[in-house]
Amino acid sequence: MNYIDLQIATESLHPDAAQFQIWVDAALSGFQQDSEITIRLVDTEESAELNGQYRHKSGPTNILSFPFEAPPGVELDLLGDLVICAPVIAREAAEQGKLPDHHWAHITVHGVLHLLGYDHIEEQDAEQMEALEIDILSRLNIANPYLEDSKQ
Fold first, then answer.
1. SS3 at position 120
2. In the chain, where does DSSP find H-type helix?
3. Per-residue pLDDT tens over the stretch 111-151
């Protein structure tokens, strides 16, 4: 079983813990099981601060992923932390013409894949990660988020 520690540090609208559980379980299906993930929902100020501190980029971002690396000899089921900026998710969903829950699902799946070691720096890696996201989201009846003309 996958355990989620949901921390809410925002007044903005956001999905509930049960919805995050569905998305995390879908993302981890076929991968690591019995994992623990902390999901922290934040406002733009905290997101911008963390984005500057850890990525040296200015302003808030939709999600930050912090994979957990256990010290040698320590075995924990902790995958890591996701920090999601609720106002950025709302703005992006509106700008992209997507249902908010579909965008939340996509960003959550995207973050979990980062915790599993996937990235999108190189084009080949990006294609692999996007293909996984599309497959996972399709199992949740969510359209391909990378199609520009798809209104979800």
1. coil
2. 17-28, 44-55, 86-96, 100-115, 123-139
3. 999 999 988 777 887 789 999 999 999 999 999 998 864 44
